[in-house]
Amino acid sequence: YNALSRLQVSKMEEQDRVAEWPTPVPMFPSQVASLVSGVLDSVARGYWLVDCRYPYEFAGGHIQGAVNIYTEQQVLSTFFPVSELPQEEARDTAVVFHCEFSSERGPKLCRALRRMDRAVNVYPTLCFPEIYLLRGGYREFFQQFQVLCEPQGYVSMLHEGHRAELRRLRGAGRTRKTLFTHTATR
């Protein structure tokens, strides 16, 4: 059994999991809270919480154990090459992406990891088949499970004190080219 079955994430078709994967699979805040608090330690081999918000948002508060990865280059350098992680362990590791609302940055980097994984593997093999998107993002998680956040705070992307940094970060993201492209061969 894989982590998807054990975590009892919402139903999805096999093609969404292994093919072109147009929509990231949602994981609910309560499920992420169960991962973080250790309730699922007996069924989940491991997990990554990937916080795709900008550094000032992350510093203002994030889910315990989350890593701040907000560019495709960071996704590449963090997850590839996978030679440092045993293949079986990588396959059983849930990777949960999120941003403030899980509507733009989180889904974008979630899809980037899947695209990179497809580019380095022969279909249907994946290094990281268990990729999810935190439903409602950090905002919803923080509202429900503030005690599992460190520090217990919430800084919005549009926070007035970080306008210049936001402009710089958004501009930098638009000038980078996509690191991997994948053309499906059928």
Question: For the largest beta sheet, what order do the strands appear in spatially?
Answer: 1-6-5-2-4
Q: Give the CA-based shape.
A: globular
**H/E element order:** HHEHEHEEHHEHEHEH
- In percent terms, what proportion of residues is strand? 5-15%
Radius of gyration, CA atoms, in whole angstroms: 16 Å
Instruction: Report the count of strand segments.
Output: 7
Low-pLDDT residue spans:
1-19, 175-186
Amount of helix: 40-55%
**Name of the CATH class:** Alpha Beta
CATH superfamily, called what? Rhodanese-like domain
GO cellular component, one term: nucleus
Pfam family, one: Rhodanese
GO biological process, one term: G2/M transition of mitotic cell cycle
Catalytic activity: O-phospho-L-tyrosyl-[protein] + H2O = L-tyrosyl-[protein] + phosphate
Give an overview in words:
There is one protein chain. The strands form two sheets. A five-stranded parallel β-sheet has the order 1-6-5-2-4. It has a two-stranded antiparallel ribbon with strand order 3-7. It has helices at residues 3-7, 14-18, 29-37, 55-60, 72-79, 87-91, 105-120, 137-145, 163-175; strands spanning 25-27, 46-51, 62-63, 67-68, 93-98, 131-134, 149-150. 41% of the residues lie in helices and 13% in strands. The chain is globular, with a radius of gyration of 16 Å. The chain has a single domain (3-155), classed as Rhodanese-like domain (Oxidized Rhodanese, domain 1, 3-Layer(aba) Sandwich), CATH 3.40.250.10. It is built from nine helices and seven strands. The relative contact order is 0.19. Helix 3 packs across helix 8 and helix 5 crosses helix 7 (105-120). Its EC number is 3.1.3.48. It catalyses: O-phospho-L-tyrosyl-[protein] + H2O = L-tyrosyl-[protein] + phosphate. This is protein-tyrosine-phosphatase.
